[in-house]
Each structure stands twice: as C-alpha cells, then as structure tokens.
Design goal:
mainly alpha, elongated, Leucine-rich Repeat Variant, single chain, about 65% helix, 29 helices
C-alpha cells in the first residue's frame, strides 16, 4: 500500500469564517517560500534516528528516540494513542501517524508559519500598519520600475514580483484590525495602489489583490466581540470609508474586466472568480442601495446570466445565481436591465433542466432555488410579465407542477407572482388554456395529507401560493368568459368539496388571528397601565403582526369566497349552510372584506393600462352584493 498517497498536504489557512472555494494542495513555490521563512538556519543539520545523514537529503524535522513514558500527552493524535512524529518504540512496533518525513516537514512549516502570523497579528498597531504599508509601497514601485525598464526580460523583474506578492500577503493582517488599519490604508494611498494592481500584467498578482479585497470587505473579519455599540459603529464607519473609496476608483469595473482573464480550469483562477463574486456580495450586504450602482457601472449582470448557463455545476455557478437573485431583489432598475438583456428567457432555459429531474445534491438545490427567486423578483415588474408569457413561462411552470418534483412548489410561487395584479391577466388566461387548473387544485386540496386537509395545521407553502393564484384568476379573468366558467365549475364539482376546503382554511386562520389579537390587546393594556396613551407608533407593527398571524390568508380566503358566492347561487347557499353550523354567517366574510378595503391605499395600486378594475373597486362591488343578500 502506498501510504504517502493517503496523506495530502493541508490546505492553506483561511482568515475568514465566510465560506470559501476549496483550493488544491500548496504549490512547490509556496512550500519553498514557507520553508525558507519558517525554518531556522541550523535546521539543515538534521539527523535520523540511527545518526546517519539520510542519504544526504536535508530534513526540517529531527526524529529522535523517545523513552516510553506513561505521562506523555498524546491527546492530539487520533485515538490519543500515538505521536505523529514517533514512528516506532524501542521494540520496533509501529505507533506513528503514518506520515513520511516530507509530510512531517510540511506540517512543521505550517505550524511555525501559523504561530508567527498569530503573533504578528496580536502585536499589530498603527506603527506596525504603517511599516507594512511602506513595505508594500516600496515593493510596488520597485516592480513597476523594473517592469518599465525591462518589459521584454522577465528575469530582470521576477524577483521584484515575488517581493510584491509577499508584501500583498502581509497586508491580510490589516483585516483583523480594521478600526485603525482601514482609515490608514485609505489616507496613505495604499488602497488606491492596490486597486491599480488590478490592472497588473501578472494575473497572479491580480488574484492576490482580489483575495485581499475579499477579506477587507467581509464584515465578519476583524475584531471579534465588539459588543459596545460605539465600537460596532466605528467598525461600520471604517468599512464604509473603504467601500466608498473602492467605488470612487472604479474598482467594480476592474473586477468585472478581470473575470474575462480568468480560466476556471485553473484552481487559483477559479478561486479568484469566487472571491470577486464575494466582494460584490459583501458590499451589497453592507449597503443594499449599491446594487443599482454596480450594474450601472459594470456589466456584472450580463456576466452572471452567462455564468449560470453553464452545463457543469460547481460552486461558482451556485454563487453566481445567488448574487443574481440579490441584485434583482434589491433594485428595480436591475430588473429592467434584466429584461433588456433577455434575462427572462435565460432564466427559463436554465430552469427547464429541472422539469423531469431533481437536483443531484444540496448545492444544486440551492442553485435551483436561487434561479427561481431571481425570476420571482423580476416578475414584480409588469413589463417582465409579458416577457414571461412570450417565453412560454406559464407552460413550463404548469409542466413542473404536473411532474411533482422538487421544482413543483417553486413553480407555483413563480405563477403566483406572474399572475398577480392587473398586468398578470394575460398570464391568467394562458394558465387556464394550458390546463393549469388540473394541476393546481390537487395542491390546493392537499390530497394525501389528512392533517393539512382538516385545517389543523398551518397553511403549507403550496396552499398559500394556490390561494394567491386563485385570487388572481378571479380578479383578472373576464366575467362569463370560458376560462372563468371553467374556474367556477371547479368549485361546484364533487359536492362543493373545494368550498369546504376554503371554509376549513378560514376557520383555522380566524382562530390564529384571534390568538394574535388577544396578545396585542394584552400589550396595549400593559402600555395603558404604564401610563402610555400614545400608541400610534406601534399601530403599524401590530398590523404587520396581524397579517403574519393569520389576517393575510384570511383576507385571501374570504376574497375568493366572496367571488364564488356572488357568481353562483348554489355555492352561496352551501357556504351559508356550512357557516351556520359554526354559528357564523356570510356577514363575517363581509366584515373581513371591509377591513381589507380600508387598509388598501389607492395611491399604491398599479397603474391601470388594461381592462381589469383596481382591487378597491372589486372589493367594493363584492361588499355591496354580499350586504344585499
């Protein structure tokens, strides 16, 4: 058995808790540099266990005989029964970890380097920061000068390039003391010099700078345990200063330009792309308003759309989908840009691969969900709903509903967004035409789930989206049209079973709302007892709690009930009879609709550019009809 092949060199230590793209084994150049820096000068004088020179090869680790001692601490070895650096006892029995001399040497190098890094970081202060920045400045200038003098002779500037790389690496420690290092980094001009290096001819230098900026922009890196509000605010201000400077120097444009220079077949380039996406992610997470600024200055949106179309799934593809969803969620202008780039068709093409198969692992599940979220965010714009229709998005989502794969719930969510509002009327008509009702109602009825059907469990995500789709259908389908008649007939068949399902949902969420209202009333009583009479500031919060506590679903259910009771006498009679068994009446539905009407701001309704009436007008008509019954 080849023992050496079972033990690989450890990965380079990371300074951030954020997820990172896994790198391969250290390159020989890295090991050579670390060996030179970490080993003492006399370490070359090594001896083996028997005192020989080991064939003339130098070793970084001296293996000596150790006496058998019951008090030895071997807790760090697997099982606590061996020392990695002691291969045999005096009887020749094997107790070691199975590492070769070279592998032990590598472990020693990393242990020594890690200890020195930790020591340096602990002692880093303002003078130390300035020394690091001065060292970096000198290295950058020297490399620039030598590249200018000898542009065609790499041997003349290769040493200065190595020094520059080492100087950049030394700046990683600044991320751990961001309160004092970031202002100094900006004021000294060090950050602008780093940004200039993003145009460096050597891509390895560029990748090193990108990795450094990834660490700098990570909010989780830096002083841990900043519990004081003042300290946390100072850290936020230093990060804002850093971010503003990056934007002023067109860093985002340079980052996107470098994406085209990288070859993802190479490990370092693949990590560089991941870090580039991470920089965008970190800055948007720090200030979501910058999402629009990025795409306005750099073609990141187009690059992301191209990247998610890759047939091979990997970490960068997943991260691209996540960043795309964030950009679309945060900016109305980004959604318009997506439409101009033909992004809706691209998203639909990417999702089409999940029509008849599920994602193969959790990473691909996350990727699929990110693409669905991006499409839902885009569909909040009326113009994109037409692009969705033209791209046969309704047909694709109905197929996914029918196949009952993992994409089923997400496809219902997409349809809920695509069919909502007056702009979704054409999507509603297409949905009925392609037999979407046949796939919708099994999800609405929760067949096969007796607890959900009985209304004794919270509404599932599928049921919530099914209610949203039904609400949009009743709002947008033209009266007495064939699609509307087909919809209404579904509530009559099988002895009004779907009406009964609506009433069960209504009862459950009315009970939830009553419990929420009781909690709010208790809080109001406590405020009054404390002498607080002005509670206007809490009214909005309480209303949001009521929506989350059952009011939103109750309003949707009663909206649908109002429609079917108005349009069919048999349904109205059946619903009234079922409500009477619970000592209720249709007047309760009217009360819900009145409260719904009063909380709709007419100024926020979608601009009318079609025949569908606004929601307030629909509610008013339903209330007047049901009141007259």
């Amino acid at each position: 058995m080849d023992i050496d092949s079972l033990f690989k060199a450890p990965k380079l230590p990371l300074t951030s808790n954020k997820r990172k793209l896994p790198l391969g084994n250290p390159t020989p150049e890295i090991l050579k540099r670390l060996r030179t820096e970490a080993l003492p000068s006399d370490s070359a004088q090594n001896t083996t266990k028997n005192g020989s020179s080991g064939g003339g090869a130098t070793r970084a680790v001296t293996v000596e005989d150790v006496e058998d001692d019951e008090g030895d601490d071997r807790s760090f070895a697997p099982g606590g029964d061996a020392d990695y650096f002691v291969e045999e006892d005096e009887d020749g029995r094997f107790f070691g970890g199975g590492l070769t001399d070279e592998q032990k040497q590598i472990l020693n190098i990393f242990d020594t380097a890690g200890e020195e890094t930790a020591k340096d970081g602990a002692e880093l202060d303002l003078p130390g920061i300035r020394r690091l920045l001065l060292q970096f400045d000198r290295a950058a200038k020297k490399n620039q000068d030598q590249r200018s003098k000898y542009p065609d002779d790499p041997t003349k500037f290769i040493d200065s390039e190595a020094d520059l790389d080492a100087a950049i690496r030394s700046l990683f420690a600044l991320a751990e003391v961001s309160l004092i290092s970031y202002p100094e980094l900006v004021s000294s001009g060090g950050l602008s010099k780093l940004i200039d290096l993003l145009s460096h001819e050597n891509l390895d230098i560029v990748l090193e700078v990108i990795a450094l900026l990834y660490e700098f922009t990570d909010e989780d890196v830096g002083e841990e345990g900043l519990e004081e509000e003042e300290e946390a605010n100072r850290k936020s201000e230093s990060l804002k200063l850093l971010t503003d400077t990056l934007l002023e120097h067109s860093t985002m444009e340079l980052l996107v330009d470098n994406l085209t220079r990288m070859n993802e077949e190479e490990d370092l380039d693949r990590q560089g792309i991941y870090d580039t996406l991470g920089i965008f992610d970190h800055i948007i997470d720090f200030n979501s308003e910058l999402a629009d600024v990025f795409t306005a200055k750099a073609p990141i949106l187009k690059w992301l759309l191209d990247r998610i179309q890759s047939k091979k799934h990997d970490e960068n593809r997943s991260y691209s989908s996540e960043l795309l969803a964030i950009l679309l969620q945060s900016s109305k202008e980004n959604r318009s840009r997506l439409d101009r780039l033909g992004g809706v068709d691209i998203l639909l093409q990417v999702l089409s691969q999940f029509r008849k198969r599920d994602p193969i692992d959790s990473d691909e599940i996350e990727f699929m969900e990110n693409v669905f979220d991006a499409l839902c965010s885009a569909l909040s714009e009326p113009g994109i709903k037409k692009a969705f229709l033209d791209g046969e998005g309704v047909e694709l989502m109905v197929i996914m509903m029918r196949e009952k794969k993992l994409s089923r719930s997400r496809s219902m969510k997409v349809l809920d967004f695509a069919m909502s509002g007056p702009a979704g009327s054409t999507n509603c008509e297409r949905f009925v035409e392609v037999l979407g009702l046949k796939s919708l109602f099994p999800a609405f009825m929760q067949k096969g789930n007796s607890k959900a059907k009985s209304g004794m469990t919270p509404t599932s995500e599928d049921t919530s989206h099914a209610l949203g789709i039904l609400s949009s259908l009743f709002s947008n389908l033209v009266s007495d049209s064939p699609p509307r008649i087909r919809l209404l007939s579904k509530f009559v068949e099988n002895d009004y079973e779907k009406v009964d399902r609506l009433l069960e949902l209504r009862e459950f969420h009315a009970t939830r709302l009553a419990a929420t209202d009781a909690e709010i009333e208790s809080e109001k009583g406590a405020f009054i007892a404390e002498g607080q009479t002005d509670m206007a500031g809490n009214e909005d919060l309480w209303y949001l709690r009521r929506l989350d506590g059952g009011l939103f679903t109750l309003q949707t259910v009663d909206y649908i009930l109002g429609w079917i009771c108005m349009e069919d006498d048999g349904i109205r009679s059946h619903a009234g009879a079922m409500l009477e068994r619970k000592n209720q009446s249709i007047n309760g539905i009217v009360d819900t609709l009145k409260a719904y009407y009063s909380n709709i701001d007419a100024s926020t309704e979608e601009v009318k550019d079609h025949d569908s009436p606004p929601l307030r007008e629909i509610l008013q008509g339903l209330i007047e009809f049901l009141d007259s019954c």
